[in-house]
Amino acid sequence: MAVTQQLARIPEGYLAACRQSAATSPDGDRHWDPPACDVLDLDWAPALLKRVGEVTGLEEAHLDALRRATDGDTTLDLGFLDTPPHAIAPFGGAPTGLGVLQVAHVSKLLGQIDMPVLLAALPADEHDAASLIGQKGAVTGGLRPYLLEHFNALRDFYLDAAKRHLHMVLWWD
Questions:
Q1: Which of 77, 89, 103, 160 is the most exposed place for a label (fewest CB within 10 A)?
Q2: Which pTM value belongs to this model?
Q3: Kind and range of the H or E element at 62?
């Protein structure tokens, strides 16, 4: 079983209801079950996407946005999602998140990143490109298509969250 990064677009009311459920449940059950349409599985692409930005000289503001989009931060109170036996991140660190304003800022900057240009700046040889960004082994369908697909999904997910004024919750599962 692979450990992959998960993201969820969540309204504040849903977070509050989950906090309340965790606080009142005898076993801390927070009743966390965001709709499938508001959850994104980024697979293991986040580290590779950040590495592409680093090695291709992505401007620091955009690189920081890419990092925040995949790392979140600890400003949201998400401890209730990390309490056994109902922890949502059994294979990774504690869940992190971004608030509505942070989501909007990150979304704007992700929208300015030209990922095809960054991917074109990698060595032409697939093996050399993979080695440079820390990918060991072949990627089914090719490294560049894999990374472009996952970046586009991340960018679009944030764009929708920003339009809907939602928080972002991130965890590894």
A1: 77
A2: 0.94
A3: helix 60-71
